[in-house]
């Protein structure tokens, strides 16, 4: 099943399904055009309209695109379960209530497809955001990262993500990456499971 998936984001969505439960609180740290936000909402929303997705992006255009996609795809009750924030993901703790149990923090790094390619995630703030995600993630939760290496700065960002993952305590974290060995520039899904 895994190897039938062509895109790194599809592989990430498949892994999320095995971790996220109805009623959960999750964070889309780079909501972009909203496809990941919508996939998360479909995992967390239950019949009583519990569950919550905090969707963050540094670009207003991205939040507008996400909002439009949600408008087209969800009923008003479901849409209310998504909270949009125009902030840097390193500030995610300002968006999420202090006592929230966060099951998933997902990063889809790089630039907004169809948008300004100069506005990309940067290693320094990505690292700060990973540290914030580590602080707020519940046991049994997942930090999911899709890293793009085809644009300038992408390889450096991959190194920063790998180095962060490599320092996580082996007793509490299972960290893995899925690299396409015959597609050297393919996006790389990385999963950090907290025991
Ligand atoms: N998840 C999105 C989707 O499903 O359409 C795609 C995300 S796109 C590859 C990367 C996004 O990260 C862009 O929309 C960009 O504006 C955003 N971004 C860049 N730097 C950021 C930061 N420091 N904090 C939050 N978002 C950021």
UniProtKB/TrEMBL annotation:
Keywords: Methyltransferase, Transferase. The keyword Hydrolase does not apply. GO terms for molecular function: methyltransferase activity; mRNA binding. It comes from the Eukaryota. One of its GO terms (biological process) is methylation. This is Putative rRNA methylase YtqB. It comes from Glycine soja (Wild soybean). The lineage of its organism: Eukaryota, Viridiplantae, Streptophyta, Embryophyta, Tracheophyta. The chain holds residues 91 to 285 of 285 of the full protein.
